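Feature request, filed as a ticket because there's no other form

It would be nice if the structure record came with a short human-readable summary line next to the tokens. Right now we just get the raw output. Example of a typical job, pasted below so the devs can see what we mean:
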Amino acid sequence: MASQARRGGVSLPERRSSNNEQNSIIARVSQSPIVVRGRQAASDAGFVAKKLLKSTGKAAWIAGTTFLVLVVPLIIEMDREQQMNDLELQQASILGSSPPK
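Raw output as currently delivered:
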């Protein structure tokens, strides 16, 4: 009776052979040309995506800094000029003269 309770640690020969069959099937499938080409294609796609993301980030940095250096001061100056025109119009209407054209 005590020897029957300890049987859990012993593996049976049938289980070994079926496990080997599964391993050999998995090995054959994973080494098939289709799977190898699929892995290579996935690896190549990942490499291209990484390069594209890196170059896109560089381009975004260049565009962003160019916008800050060149366009933002232009926008600020145009806003100031518009405020000055509005102020001149307001002063002209208060003084009663005809607005400048």
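Something like this underneath would help us a lot:
Residues 13-95 form one domain.
The longest helix spans residues 33-95.
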